[in-house]
């Protein structure tokens, strides 16, 4: 049987019974339908799928698959919506949605169209992997900003050791199995001689911000217990100072654990993380709730002896007023003054 055209809106993921926020951790399966369609050797394939695959943030889709697909030269066009409800009324797909045209006989640039959350539409004929990173920088307005940062930092985003992801620990940094998992409750509410390690937990889930545990409860990375560090929710949010003598549950990522940083350096990193510049670059990859190490790839490292502000960063990277205005208008403010005040009182 011969197919000239295959069109579809395939199933997006296997839910495996996951609900609520965990629903978006389900494994994607739509790429398997794309593969099967291409195997049938049609002239055209066109499908509507979530956009998270483009930034390597879709559970179950390998970076290798994304790299191969966007560098095949066969994707003739993509229409990409940052807000899925702009395409499907009242249908929320985290990270956006897109429809693409794969053409067996095409071998070249893609006609890419990006619909931003605020309704702006940008179009460009381009190589999808514009920065040779194995993923798509979807927001076309971000391209010039990344180029300017790279002109100062010289390939910083290609090696983990030269961008902010180097500071970010892997998921499950302190926890292992059930120990220190989100629903683990074997902590004490009061500090005592034995239970003397502060254990930061999800206040939403536990109704308290932290408890106290024994050092023997920490299954791994014990060397980081007595370091200055930062905790931030794996879903993003406000950074929290992690003082020496503390650990965290699987709710959080650990930042700065591997550089023996001073308290002041850690606080300067927190200030950097609160800037719109930082969060704009982070948001290029973080188009869903997940904020794992990979979403920090496009953020440059700085001199942590300095306290960084947006004004200093805009000047350092020679951003134009239009570029500054775009960052300012698309990125919300973050006030970490309360976290800094709390940190000052902690040893």
UniProtKB/TrEMBL annotation:
Domain Type II methyltransferase M.TaqI-like: 1-88
One of the GO BP terms on file: methylation
Coiled coil: none
Molecular function (Gene Ontology), one example: site-specific DNA-methyltransferase (adenine-specific) activity
Superkingdom of source: Bacteria
This protein's name: Type II methyltransferase M.TaqI-like domain-containing protein
Lineage: Bacteria, Bacillati, Bacillota, Bacilli, Lactobacillales
